Amino acid sequence: MKPVLPLAAVLIAIGSIATAQMPPTTGTSTTPAVPPAGMPGTAQTATSARTQIEASGYTNIKELKRRDDGSWHALATKNDVEVAVSVDTTGSVTQISR
What we know:
Blueprint: H1 4-20, H2 46-55, E1 59-66, E2 72-78, E3 81-87, E4 93-96
């Protein structure tokens, strides 16, 4: 049982070193807090694009279409105004001019 203690100490030390080497997470994110379906940070399907748009505060999403570049475009409502929105391949939602 004594060999278990040194092994545990080594594992704890390795975990501490790995955590200390991680870069700090500062700044702001342009993606909503809710990740889309599929890989985090990407809009791969109509469902994940819709989820990203809704998580960004838009409602009444319609005419959701995928473009050749992989982005999604739709009409949606925010603050009682219908606007055009785009979801890029990283999952970022942007209000665009029509």
